[in-house]
Amino acid sequence: MTFPEWTKPGVYGALGGAVAVSILGFTWGGWTTAGSADEMAQNRAAEEVTLAMVPVCLNLSEVDAERPAKLAMLQEASSFQRRNAMMETGWATLPGTDAPSRDLADACLAGLELDGS
User: How many domains are there within the chain?
Assistant: First the structure.
């Protein structure tokens, strides 16, 4: 079976158009692959857990017997050292874990509203 001469440019144009639409869709169109959608969902879930735990962190800071000393330590720390200082207080440790959370430490610092932040 022979095809008319005009079908060859049409097929090439269709293939080129499909490639162009795919490139534009994934770069500017907001299309995502299953892997990147899963990664975005995991990041969003982690952010929501951190936001939900801020009141727990602030509550831990309020009931801590050593609160004045720890707050003084946080205020004396430079802005670059505050996250680590907050992690050392123990207030930024998620329940059920042993290590403090860096994201929770940042969020808890924002919630404390220290002078000079």
Answer: 2
